[in-house]
Write a structure and sequence with these properties.
Layout (H helix, E strand, L loop, with lengths): L7 E5 L5 H11 L4 E5 L3 H7 L14 H8 L4 E4 L2 H7 L2 E4 L19 H13 L3 E6 L7 H15 L7 E6 L9 H6 L4 E4 L3 H11 L8 E4 L1 H32 L3 H9 L20 H14 L3 H28 L8 E5 L14 H11 L3 E5 L5 H8 L21 E4 L3 H5 L4 E4 L4 H4 L3 H7 L5 E4 L6 H6 L3 E4 L7
Parallel strand pairs: 1-2, 1-4, 2-3, 4-5, 5-6, 7-8, 9-10, 9-12, 10-11, 12-13, 13-14
Helix pairs in contact: 1-3, 5-6, 9-11, 9-12, 11-12, 12-13
The structure holds nicotinamide-adenine-dinucleotide and uridine-5'-diphosphate-glucuronic acid.
Length: 480
C-alpha cells in the first residue's frame, strides 16, 4: 500500500513530552498541522494562555516555539475525537505511571491510559492512520495496541476502510533541556514492521535530524531500548553516589574520582555528577518496569540487579538526611533549616520523585522547621508532594511560643527569606541563582554556628569557608 502524504498530526497527551515534542515538530515542519489534545481541560487552557508565563510546564526556549507556532500550525485542544479523525499520524504521549494496585502493583506500568487511547483511535480514526507509541512502554505493548486496532479494521469492512500501522518512537529528551534535546537529538529511534510507515515517520524528522541519526529497529528492540537507556543512566548515578559515600569515609573527593574515570573514553564523562539521588518521573518507574518484565520472563537475578539501582538511590537520600541531623549536634528539632531547591533538577518546575521530597520529609519527621525556596515550584505543589500544608512563617522557631516538637515547613519567596535565622542551608537543586549567593551576607543573617550542605557541588567552597560558614559537600572526604 502506498501511504498518503502526511498533513495532519494528532498528539494525545499535552504533558512534559507531548507539549515540547509537538512544538518542535510544528516549528520544523510548517507544512504540517499539529494538534495536541488532552482530557485535562485546565492543562489545555494553560497551553492556550496568552500569558506565556502560565504555560503548564517550564522549559527553556519553549515559550518562543509556542509564540511562533501556536494557532498557526500548532493547536492545543480538548476536541480529541475530531483531531484523531483528521489525523494521518497519531502520537500516543500519555502518562504510564507505576501500577498502584492489582497484578504487578508497585512495579509494572499502568497501561490504562494507553489502552484508552488505543480504543479512542480505533473508534474515531478514518482512512489509514499511523499510530506512534511516544510514551515509554513495556516490551510488547505494541501488540496490545495492534490487537485493539485490528478489531477496528475488521469492524470497518462495511464502512470506508480503516487501516493502521503501529510504530514505536520513544522519546529521549531530558527535562530542563527538552527543546535543545529535541532539536539536536543523539538519535531518533523508530521501531516497526512496515518499512513504508517507518519511512513516513522518518520523513518528518528528516526536516532537521541528519539521516544517520535516525535508527530503524524492530518494534520490541525499540521499546526495550528506551527502558534500557534510562536504566543505564540511572545506574551510573547510583554508581557514582555509592562512590561518594566511600569518598566521604576515606578522604577522597568524588569530583576528582569522577574526572579521573570520566577521562577514560570507554566510561565517558557524562552522568557522573554525584548529587542528592536521582529524581524525575521516569528513572524509577522505568527501572521498576524492567524489573517486572525480568520477573515475568523468569529472570530473577536480572531483576535483582536492576532493583539495587533504586534501593541505592533511596538509601543515599536517607543517608544525606541522617548526616545533616548528625552534624547539627544530633537534633534538628525546632531549628530553622533553609532548603534551596525543590525541583528534581534545575530548569524545570517538575518535582516528581525529587530527592527534596524524601529529604524534607525526613527532616520534618525529625522536628525541623523548613523554609523551602525554589524559583519555579509553587507552594501548592510542595504541599501536594509533602502531604503537609505550609505553616505560617516563623522567624525564630526556637522562641516561638506556639512551637511544639512537630516539624513544619513554610515557603520562602527569596533565598534571603529562606536563609534568615536558619542554622543550616541545604542545596538540593542546582539552580544557577544558588551559585551566586553572597555567603558573607548569608553568614550575617543565619544563626551561628551555621552550616551549608551542598548536595549539588555548586558553591564556591572558598567563598563559603571564608565567610565563616561550615561547609559539607557531597562526596568530599576532606571534611572528615
Ligand atoms: P504527563 O503526565 O506530563 O502528561 C501526560 C498527559 O496525558 C496528561 O496531561 C494527561 O491528562 C494526558 N492523558 C492521559 N490519558 C489521556 C487520554 N486518554 N486522552 C487524552 N489525554 C490523556 O506525562 P509526560 O511526562 O509527558 O510523560 C508521557 C510519557 O512519556 C510517559 O510514558 C513517560 O514515561 C514518557 N517520557 C517522559 C519524559 C519526561 O521527561 N517527562 C521523557 C521521555 C519519555
Ligand atoms: C531522563 C533521561 O535523561 C532522558 O533521556 C529520558 O528521556 C527521560 O529521563 C525520561 O524518560 O523521562 P530527566 O529525568 O528529565 O531525563 O533528567 P536527567 O537529566 O536524566 O536527570 C534525572 C535525575 O538524575 C535528576 O534528578 C538529576 O539531578 C540526576 N542526575 C543526573 C544526577 O544526579 N547526576 C548526573 O550526573 C545526572
Amino acid at each position: 500500500m502506498v501511504l498518503p502524504q502526511i498533513k495532519n498530526i494528532c498528539c494525545i497527551g499535552a504533558g512534559y513530552v507531548g507539549g515540547p515534542t509537538m512544538s518542535v515538530i510544528a516549528d520544523k515542519c510548517p507544512y504540517l498541522s499539529v494538534n495536541v489534545v488532552d482530557i485535562n481541560a485546565q492543562r489545555i487552557q494553560d497551553w492556550n494562555s496568552s500569558n506565556l508565563e502560565d504555560l503548564p510546564i517550564y522549559e527553556p526556549g519553549l515559550d518562543k516555539k509556542i509564540e511562533k507556532c501556536r494557532n498557526i500550525n500548532l493547536h492545543f485542544s480538548v476536541e480529541i475525537e475530531k483531531h484523531i479523525s483528521n489525523a494521518d499520524i497519531v502520537f500516543i504521549s500519555v502518562n504510564t505511571p507505576t501500577k498502584t494496585k492489582g497484578i504487578g502493583a508497585g512495579k509494572a506500568s499502568d497501561l490504562k491510559w494507553v489502552e484508552a487511547c488505543a480504543r479512542q483511535v480505533s473508534k474515531f480514526a478514518s482512512g489509514h492512520t499511523i499510530v506512534v507509541e511516544k510514551s515509554t512502554l513495556p516490551v510488547k505493548t505494541a501488540e496490545v495496541i495492534k490487537k485493539i486496532l485490528e478489531d477496528a479494521e475488521l469492524n470497518s469492512q462495511n464502512k470506508s476502510k480503516t487501516t493502521f500501522d503501529v510504530l514505536s518512537n520513544p522519546e529521549f529528551l531530558s527535562e530542563g533541556s527538552a527543546i535543545e534535546d529535541l532539536e539536536h537529538p543523539d538519535r531518533v529511534l523508530i521501531g516497526g514492521e512496515n518499512i513504508e510507515a517507518i519511512n513516513v515517520l522518518s520523513e518528518i524528522y528528516l526536516n532537521w535530524v541528519p539521516k544517520e541519526k535516525i535508527l530503524h529497529t524492530n518494534i520490541w528492540s525499540s521499546e526495550l531500548a528506551k527502558l534500557t537507556a534510562n536504566a543505564f543512566l540511572a545506574q551510573r548515578i547510583s554508581s557514582i553516589n555509592s562512590i561518594s559515600a566511600i569518598c566521604e569515609a576515606t578522604g577522597a573527593d568524588v569530583r576528582e574520582v569522577a574526572r579521573a574515570i570520566g577521562s577514560d573514553s570507554r566510561i565517558g564523562s557524562k552522568f557522573l555528577d554525584s548529587g542528592p539521588g536521582f529524581g524525575g518521573s521516569c528513572f524509577k518507574k522505568d527501572i521498576l518496569n524492567l524489573v517486572y518484565l525480568c520477573e515475568y520472563f523468569g529472570l530473577p537475578e536480572v531483576a535483582k540487579f536492576w532493583e539495587e539501582v533504586i534501593a541505592l538511590n533511596k538509601w543515599h537520600q536517607h543517608r544525606i538526611s541522617k548526616l545533616i541531623v548528625k552534624t547539627l549536634f544530633g537534633t534538628v528539632t525546632g531549628k530553622k533549616i533553609s532548603i534551596l531547591g525543590f525541583a528534581f533538577k534545575a530548569n524545570t518546575n517538575d518535582t516528581r520523585e525529587s530527592a527534596a521530597i524524601t529529604i524534607c520529609k525526613d527532616l520534618i519527621e525529625e522536628g525541623a522547621v523548613l523554609s523551602i525556596h525554589d524559583p519555579k515550584v509553587d507552594t501548592c505543589q510542595i504541599e501536594k508532594d509533602l502531604g503537609i500544608k505550609s505553616s505560617v512563617n516563623s522567624e525564630d522557631p526556637l522562641t516561638d511560643k506556639t512551637f511544639d516538637s512537630k516539624g513544619v515547613w513554610n515557603y520562602a519567596k527569596t533565598t534571603d527569606e529562606s536563609l534568615s535565622g536558619s542554622d543550616a542551608s541545604i542545596i538540593l537543586t542546582e539552580w544557577k541563582e544558588y551559585e551566586n549567593i553572597d555567603w558573607l551576607k548569608a553568614k550575617k543573617i543565619m544563626r551561628s554556628p551555621s552550616w551549608i550542605f551542598d548536595a549539588r557541588s555548586i558553591v564556591n567552597t572558598n567563598e563559603v569557608k571564608n565567610a565563616g560558614l561550615n561547609l559539607w559537600r557531597i562526596g568530599d572526604g576532606s571534611q572528615i
